[in-house]
């Protein structure tokens, strides 16, 4: 509970307008992008500076009030749902691009800046910030860092973690730390920068970030390959990488996704295909030509039933429509859409997709899979109705089995969306008991009173492992 | 949390709050459930853009509607204020992956609010006069037009302005008054009759929806619309018995009045053998294309409403898609190219999906350079009567809009809806000190530059 005097102190820090406890504020900060999850906070605060965040943390610590840091609330893991009440701290007012350093090729930004705005700004300066989560139009850089978000360009360019050089962060005690810097090399002590990337708001509040920028690729070429045999598609993926070609984008859609997309976008996709690969290469013109030619040959060898190379940017956009509309098409099928991100080594994607299809049939649920074939990051997506508790239960059972299958294939329960509260019961499956203990130790070192995003990352109880019969 | 009644039912809650009860009854619970709270609509929303606060976003508003229905929140004054702050521009709809019908949800909410509203006496009289007397009846509107014209022409206007009489009105009303165009009691039918034949090779038959405000304040634009259509090869009917589209009613929660008007219009147009029902006002067109939805529950009108909705099209979309090419005059030698820019009509863009055609047309006009304004697709803050009832938010939005407008350095600011046109005129008057820009309806601009074959 927030007392009258606490409320006064908080308002004194941020101004009357920016600490709210009215019903409208509480209701609209009770959720994030995660289906079927809602919990009311006790207050909502909008800080504007690192100093304000520090003052807020001191009060929260002294009173043991949970603080849930929030960017745009687009995460899919329950990351900003205030499960134990407390105060939701919205970072939107801290949305400045402080500096773009053209000599060191770095940008210094506040965490509330929208990823898409930032990317565009950087492009206009003739530079390139590669991380491109599909939610970049709305997600914040702070949220991207806290979730270590990935995107379509992950295979070639890496994910958010590869572009964070330094951070300013406020600890629960109110102390401010600065990690890393505009440095390509830095081994002074533990790498706290990397530790805070992906920490999901459980260790510290990020209030500033130094990001790495790179020169943009000169050209880009797009092609599509369609397969009746999903293994052909999978072998194509492996072979491309084996031949030391790293495409900028290498995406896959499975048959259930193809059907839904075609029904939605009416682009005449062949419904008898088991998989479609969408491939893009960027870089120096000669290299791009050479790579696309080599990839084309591989697709041929692997019995692709249809192959298309875009000759113009418009044609490329058309080829990309199928991938771009996958989520939208699925989201429109039923009221509730559950988008997961089980990830496997890339050599196992065919296996994983087929297992997912079998699991969906077994539980009689609708699951379509698309995703980043190049880095093995798949998005099995279930469409259901939150009001149908019996079906939702089957969906949950199916996902538990999908996570188990991913781990069995040497993969992980989440490639980019994070653990939050939703995957917390499965974390131990991936990292083991000792792994959990180390992580809990780290958590205690940063946040001894457990006020930062409580109820996330660590579950009260690990879910019982399923026994899977392979056959 | 509330438990649902059936597989797809609404929560079985006996709300003690009367507004909550009505919201539960009126709101489409499937649509509320369809919102997956992804937040993709936030960047599109002007009120979120201005405030930076989730309650003023589409996702926030839907969450509050659902919370009220689910019994998590009492729909108090703050709730109503937040719903009324929504412009109804529907920019959130095309941004939504899940195809949530936000426009319907906000209309249902406003309808519920209107049912429980205790308006002050003057507001009640104003609503009553406008919604029940003026808009539904052409006679009254014409009378209003006549009175306005008289007021404007007789010099009373000057006197009123000079004597500072307008200062007695709230500031924003006074501002609006200064940009009102000369009203007229002579509408398009009085000027052209009820039928205007195609010129050249005939390509189709259209019926003109003249709109009530359009025909009083912008009758000239209606005439130009008919002439453009005719030049592009359309026979044009202008049925005189047509009435107001009902959009202002629907957006203000007077949904039954809107339905009655829809039925009247359907009866009128159904009598004609036509391919298209043409609108030149995004605000009207957007409701006309949704007549099928408006009368979905009406067994008697459902089929005819569908017939009607399928034929509704914006004048620019029709000209581009089906019309014979228009011929535009070259400018006299030595004259410089004129720069034109465009403010989208939200409803034309977001509901009628007609953002492309106006741009195609502008680019075709000889000796003009089309400059896309930054955030042209963002609402200008006019939104029906929004600038009158939410002057502060509308003012902020307009100030930002005009920064972008001024950056284009265009001499013409074109638009496709009377509300937007007035708002742009206001913007130029308030935020463009040199007044080098002229706001104009796209149709008037095209007509001005077209070579008549007559
Ligand atoms: C349709 C859809 C598509 C998506 N596609 C992708 C995708 O392609 N790739 C991908 O990786 N993700 C994707 N996501 C997930 C989500 O958008 C990302 O995780 C994104 O980074 C979240 O950003 P946000 O600003 O919304 O953060 P929020 O959701 O507000 O917060 C996410 C987490 O970060 C923490 N946090 C936020 N700001 C700070 C801060 N300043 N300091 C400390 N902690 C902070 C929060 O506590 C929370 O744990 C998608 C989501 C949706 C709805
Ligand atoms: S984009 Fe659609 S589904 Fe997403 S939050 Fe907005 S209304 Fe809801
Ligand atoms: S209609 Fe316009 S103002 Fe209203 S929520 Fe949607 S985008 Fe925002």
Automatic annotation (TrEMBL), chain A:
PANTHER family: GLYCOLATE OXIDASE SUBUNIT GLCD. Residues 37-216 form the FAD-binding PCMH-type domain. InterPro entries: FAD-bd_oxidored_4_C, FAD-bd_PCMH, FAD-bd_PCMH-like_sf, FAD-bd_PCMH_sub2, FAD-linked_Oxase-like_C, FAD-linked_OxidoTrans_Type4, Oxid_FAD_bind_N, Vanillyl_alc_oxidase_C-sub2. One of its GO terms (molecular function) is FAD binding. It comes from the Bacteria. Its cofactor is FAD. It comes from Paenibacillus campinasensis. The keyword Nucleus does not apply. The keyword Oxidoreductase applies. Keywords: FAD, Flavoprotein, Oxidoreductase. The lineage of its organism: Bacteria, Bacillati, Bacillota, Bacilli, Bacillales. This is Glycolate oxidase subunit GlcD. It holds the Pfam family FAD-oxidase_C. Gene3D superfamilies: 3.30.465.10, 3.30.70.2740, Vanillyl-alcohol Oxidase, Chain A, domain 4. Belongs to the FAD-binding oxidoreductase/transferase type 4 family.
TrEMBL record, chain B:
The keyword Transport applies. Its EC number is 1.1.99.14. It catalyses: (R)-lactate + A = pyruvate + AH2; glycolate + A = glyoxylate + AH2. Its cofactor is [4Fe-4S] cluster. One of its GO terms (molecular function) is 4 iron, 4 sulfur cluster binding. Pfam families: CCG, Fer4_8. Keywords: 4Fe-4S, Electron transport, Iron, Iron-sulfur, Metal-binding, Repeat, Transport. Binds 2 [4Fe-4S] clusters. It is an enzyme of class 1 (oxidoreductase). Component of a complex that catalyzes the oxidation of glycolate to glyoxylate. Residues 25-56, 76-108 form the 4Fe-4S ferredoxin-type domain. This is Glycolate oxidase iron-sulfur subunit. The keyword Iron applies.
């Amino acid at each position: 509970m927030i007392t009258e005097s606490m409320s006064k102190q908080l308002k004194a820090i941020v101004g009357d307008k920016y600490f709210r406890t009215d019903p409208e504020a509480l209701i609209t900060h009770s959720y994030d992008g995660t289906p079927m999850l809602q919990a009311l906070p006790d207050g909502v605060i909008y800080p504007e500076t690192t100093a304000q965040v520090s003052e807020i943390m001191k009060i929260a610590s002294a009173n043991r009030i949970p603080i849930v840091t929030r960017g745009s609330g687009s995460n899919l893991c329950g990351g900003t749902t205030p499960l134990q009440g407390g105060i939701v701290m919205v970072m939107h007012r801290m949305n400045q691009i402080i500096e773009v350093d053209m000599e060191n090729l770095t940008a210094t930004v506040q965490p509330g800046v929208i990823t898409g705005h930032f990317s565009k700004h950087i492009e206009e300066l003739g530079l390139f910030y590669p991380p491109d989560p599909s939610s970049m139009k709305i997600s914040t850089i702070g949220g991207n860092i806290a979730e270590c978000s990935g995107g379509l360009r992950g295979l070639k360019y890496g994910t958010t973690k590869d572009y964070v050089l330094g951070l300013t962060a406020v600890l629960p005690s109110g102390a401010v730390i600065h990690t890393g810097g505009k440095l390509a090399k830095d081994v002074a002590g533990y790498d706290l920068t990397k530790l805070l990337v992906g920490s999901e708001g459980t260790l510290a509040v990020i209030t500033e970030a130094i990001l790495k920028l790179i020169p943009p690729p000169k050209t880009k070429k797009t092609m599509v390959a369609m397969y009746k045999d999903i293994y052909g598609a999978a072998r194509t993926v492996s072979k491309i990488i084996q031949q030391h070609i790293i495409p900028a984008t290498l995406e896959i859609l499975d048959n259930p996704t193809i059907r839904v997309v075609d029904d939605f976008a009416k682009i005449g996709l062949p419904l008898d295909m088991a998989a479609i690969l969408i491939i893009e290469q960027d870089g120096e013109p000669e290299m791009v030509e050479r790579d696309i030619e080599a990839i084309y040959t591989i697709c041929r060898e692997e019995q692709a039933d249809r192959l298309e190379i875009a000759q113009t940017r418009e044609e490329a956009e058309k080829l990309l429509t199928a991938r771009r509309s996958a989520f939208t098409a699925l989201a429109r099928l039923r009221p509730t859409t559950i988008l997961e991100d089980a990830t496997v080594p890339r050599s196992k994607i065919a296996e994983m997709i087929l297992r997912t299809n079998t699991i969906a049939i077994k539980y009689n649920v609708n699951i379509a899979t698309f995703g980043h074939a190049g880095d093995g990051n798949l998005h099995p997506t279930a469409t259901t109705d939150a009001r149908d508790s019996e079906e939702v239960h089957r969906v949950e059972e199916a996902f538990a089995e999908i996570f188990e299958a991913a781990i069995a294939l040497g993969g992980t329960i989440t490639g980019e969306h994070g653990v939050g509260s939703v995957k917390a019961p499965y974390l131990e499956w991936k990292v083991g008991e000792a792994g959990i203990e180390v992580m809990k130790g780290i958590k205690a070192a940063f946040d001894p009173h457990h006020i930062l995003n409580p109820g996330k990352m660590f579950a009260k109880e690990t879910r019982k492992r399923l026994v899977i019969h392979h056959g | 949390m509330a438990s649902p009644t059936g597989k797809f039912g609404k929560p079985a809650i006996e709300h003690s709050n009367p507004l909550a009860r009505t919201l539960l009854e009126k709101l489409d619970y499937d649509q509320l459930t369809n919102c997956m709270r992804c937040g993709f609509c936030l960047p599109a929303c002007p009120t979120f853009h201005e405030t930076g606060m989730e309650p003023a976003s589409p996702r926030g508003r839907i969450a509050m509607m659902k919370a009220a229905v689910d019994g998590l929140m009492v729909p108090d004054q703050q709730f109503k204020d937040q719903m009324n702050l929504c412009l109804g521009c529907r920019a959130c709809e095309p941004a939504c992956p899940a195809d949530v019908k936000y426009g319907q949800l906000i209309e249902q909410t406003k309808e519920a609010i209107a049912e429980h509203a205790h308006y002050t006496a003057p507001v009640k009289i104003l609503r009553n006069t406008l919604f029940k007397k003026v808009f539904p009846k052409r006679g009254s509107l014409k009378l209003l037009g006549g009175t306005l014209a008289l007021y404007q022409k007789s010099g009373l206007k000057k006197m009123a302005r000079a004597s500072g009489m307008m200062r007695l009105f709230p500031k924003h009303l006074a501002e609006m008054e200064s940009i009102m165009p000369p009203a007229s009691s002579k509408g398009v039918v009085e000027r052209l009759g009820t039928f205007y034949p195609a010129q050249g090779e005939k390509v189709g038959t259209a019926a003109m929806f003249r709109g009530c405000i359009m025909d009083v304040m912008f009758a000239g634009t209606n005439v130009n619309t008919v002439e453009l259509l005719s030049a592009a090869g359309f026979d044009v009917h202008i049925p005189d018995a047509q009435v107001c589209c009902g959009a202002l009613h629907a957006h203000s929660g007077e949904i039954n009045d809107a339905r009655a008007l829809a039925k009247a219009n359907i009866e009128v147009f159904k009598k004609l053998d036509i391919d298209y029902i043409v609108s030149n006002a995004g605000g009207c067109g957007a409701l006309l294309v949704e007549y099928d939805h408006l009368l979905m529950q009406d067994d008697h009108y459902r089929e005819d409403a569908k017939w009607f909705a399928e034929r509704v099209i914006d004048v620019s979309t029709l000209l581009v898609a089906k019309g014979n090419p228009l011929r535009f005059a070259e400018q006299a030698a030595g004259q410089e190219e004129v720069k034109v820019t465009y403010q989208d009509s939200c409803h034309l863009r977001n509901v009628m999906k007609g953002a492309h055609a106006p741009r195609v047309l502008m680019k075709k006009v000889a000796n003009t350079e089309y400059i896309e304004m930054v955030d042209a697709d963002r609402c200008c803050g006019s939104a029906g009567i929004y600038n009158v009832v939410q002057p502060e938010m509308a003012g902020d939005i307009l100030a930002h809009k005009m920064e972008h407008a001024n950056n284009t350095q265009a001499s013409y600011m074109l638009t496709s809806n009377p509300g937007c046109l007035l708002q742009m005129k206001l913007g130029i008057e308030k935020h463009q000190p040199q007044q080098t820009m002229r706001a104009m309806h796209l149709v008037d601009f095209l007509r001005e530059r077209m070579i008549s074959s007559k």
